[in-house]
């Protein structure tokens, strides 16, 4: 089995690599087939997914059985001003990979986002709900989804949300650093979603791509909260003496609108390979406990 994983320097690709090398994640073992797999991890300097000719040539030569696209332009606010780059990476890139996958008969798993929804409502969005993004990031990610569906027959589209992990920048690291330095934080309390541990997401991706259960999936931590609730738990689990104060979104001036409610329901997971995504509080506590242990060992 040959795998191609793009976005190799991002937190999800690095999490996938870590789990593959260990042969298991925190929530269970992965299929032993990965021990014998030939895997190529590519970043932008090795494979520019926005260049169709380069993608077709690369995939034609490597002949992967599975492509996992972790590459994305995820700076939500910067997308508003750098529309061209966001469009190329989040829409054209997946299109190119879909066309290449179709040519060689490969499966394609493409990672998408809760921001394809408009944030109106109070019931978690399911896979059959109609997307209606309200910012450039969400619009380009939705177009990427549409291109994957149009140009590739054997696809998995996996929408996730509020992702954090051991590698790279994320909300958990930002809050930990700010809480230690300032001792006082203001965090918005009127946006709700699902914090997702990259370990859990990576585990399900590695399980899903070995199947033929094609389609659109939601894959997030179970349970929902606001960014304020999330920050409070981060500070609590880390044992940091910090005051966290709730504020409303209108107190923060940002270029991109955020959906007020973007919780996802992992219905497709439950109906196919099973939903082992941990409750967001349990997954977060495990993550922070692991950080503490690593710091003590260091």
UniProtKB/TrEMBL annotation:
Keyword Mitochondrion part of the UniProt annotation: no
Pathway note: Carbohydrate biosynthesis; dTDP-L-rhamnose biosynthesis
Gene Ontology CC: one annotated term: cytosol
Keyword terms of this UniProt record: NADP, Oxidoreductase
GO BP, sorted A to Z: dTDP-rhamnose biosynthetic process
CDD domains for the chain: dTDP_HR_like_SDR_e (cd05254)
E.C. number(s) listed in UniProt: 1.1.1.133
UniProt key word NADP: yes
Superkingdom, taxonomy of origin: Bacteria
Molecular function as annotated in GO: dTDP-4-dehydrorhamnose reductase activity
RmlD-like substrate binding domain: residues covered: 1-292
NCBIfam families assigned: rmlD (TIGR01214)
Family according to the record: Belongs to the dTDP-4-dehydrorhamnose reductase family.
Function, in words: Catalyzes the reduction of dTDP-6-deoxy-L-lyxo-4-hexulose to yield dTDP-L-rhamnose.
Protein name: dTDP-4-dehydrorhamnose reductase
């Amino acid at each position: 089995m040959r795998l191609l994983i793009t976005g190799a320097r991002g937190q999800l690709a690095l999490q996938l690599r870590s789990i593959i090398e260990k042969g298991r994640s925190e929530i269970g073992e992965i299929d032993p087939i990965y021990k014998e797999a030939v895997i190529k991890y590519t970043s932008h300097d090795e494979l520019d997914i926005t260049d169709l000719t380069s993608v077709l040539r690369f995939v034609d030569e490597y002949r992967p059985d599975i492509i996992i696209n972790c590459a994305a332009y995820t700076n939500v606010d910067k997308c508003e001003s750098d529309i061209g780059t966001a469009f190329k990476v989040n829409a054209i890139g997946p299109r190119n990979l879909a066309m290449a996958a179709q040519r060689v008969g490969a499966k394609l798993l493409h990672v998408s986002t809760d921001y394809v929804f408009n944030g109106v409502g109070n019931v978690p969005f399911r896979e059959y709900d109609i997307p209606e993004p309200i910012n450039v990031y969400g619009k380009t990610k939705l177009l990427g989804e549409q291109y994957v569906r149009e140009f590739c027959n054997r696809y998995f589209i996996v929408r996730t949300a509020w992702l954090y992990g051991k590698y790279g920048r994320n909300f958990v690291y930002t809050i930990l650093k700010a809480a230690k330095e300032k001792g006082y934080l203001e965090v918005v309390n009127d946006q709700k979603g699902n914090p997702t541990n990259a370990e859990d997401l990576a585990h399900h991706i590695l399980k899903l791509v070995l199947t033929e259960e094609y389609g659109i999936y939601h894959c997030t931590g179970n349970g929902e909260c606001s960014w304020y609730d999330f920050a409070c738990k981060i500070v609590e689990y880390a044992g940091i003496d910090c005051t966290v104060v709730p504020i409303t979104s209108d107190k923060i001036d940002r270029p991109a609108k955020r959906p007020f409610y973007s919780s996802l329901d992992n219905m497709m997971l439950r109906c196919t390979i099973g939903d082992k995504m941990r409750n967001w509080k349990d997954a977060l506590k495990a993550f922070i406990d692991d950080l503490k242990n690593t710091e003590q060992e260091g």
